[in-house]
Amino acid sequence: MMHEPGGATAEAVVEQPVADKLLVDLDIDIGPWLPDSLQPFWSFLQDYPLLLVLILAALGYVIGKALQWMLRQLLERITKRTRSDLDDRLTRYLTKPVVQTTVILALVAAVKSFGFDESADRFMVRILFSFLILLWGRAWFHAVTLVIGLMARDAQRFPAFQPRTRPLFEMGVKLVLLSIFIWLFMALWDIDGTAWLASAGVIVALSSDHTTDSNSGAHTADPVPSLIFDPSECSPDDGNRPNFGETACRQGNLPRLRSFEFLDRVLSKMGC
Questions:
Q1: pLDDT confidence of 1, banded at 50, 70, 90?
Q2: Where are the alpha helices (DSSP H) in 79-203?
Q3: Among 26, 28, 105, which residue's Cα sits nearest to residue 60?
């Protein structure tokens, strides 16, 4: 409260800090989504959390098994004309995490019934979803290995997938998958990737050793496109968010550099 001349008073307005919005909304509550006929039963189970966990876990397991069976039947009908058992193995890989998914989602719903404080509640939900990301990541990694191995065996239909090029494709696809799952994990735990890279002193530099003419397929003496990304130059505090797309790279400010000059600039940004 502040007193103004003349006896008038004016209230000082104090701005309260606004909490940053989470990248992933973890306020999950299935109670409002239940029909009115099940609301009394749900309220009764909330008084017995352990019983609620057992019931929801069993229900999630049954639903997961039903979904897994339907998906496998559908995929087996699609691949029944093939003579190889690789399709069956691929189906098992991609449908195996279905049961774990429904059980984990059921456990996430059950966590809300224990009445933990907000920080503990979000921590447990994040742990459960982290297991979910790990399970699906492992399934997709197995599936990628199986599919690329199958394509490498059939050189007539897939000439690009040869035994000597198989590691290149396999590593490339797995790196993309790994990047996606890492991004999901960081979004789940509300980790700012740009700030993390900046604090770790990571500099991203892309270049190449030669250019190839797309018409003739021969090497040329044209300069190669090169770019450097320094997260520390993009401060999230002043709203200057990094833009590292093709348009920003095309409008870049790197001059024409020789190879040792490019490396020297990267090393200088790293503090070497």
A1: very low
A2: 86-95, 97-111, 118-153, 166-188, 193-200
A3: 105
Phi, psi at 229, each rounded to 5°: -115, 120
Amino acid at 171: M
Cα separation, 98 vs 73, whole angstroms: 14
- Domain range annotation of the chain: 25-34+42-191, 193-272
3-state secondary structure of 212: strand
Average pLDDT of the segment spanning 218-240: 71
| Contact yes or no for 174/207 (Cβ under 8 A) | no
Q: 152 with 163: CB under 8 angstroms?
A: yes
Residue 264 CA to residue 267 CA, distance in Å, equals: 5
Burial of 63 (0-12, 13-18, 19+ CB in 10 A): middle
Mean pLDDT of all residues in 119-133: 90
C-alpha of 211 from chain center: 33
Distance (Å, rounded) from C-alpha 113 to C-alpha 68? 28
Contact 169, 148 (CB under 8 A): yes
Closest alpha carbon to 103 in 83, 73, 131, 124? 131
Q: What is the DSSP string of 222-234?
A: SPPP-EEE-GGGS
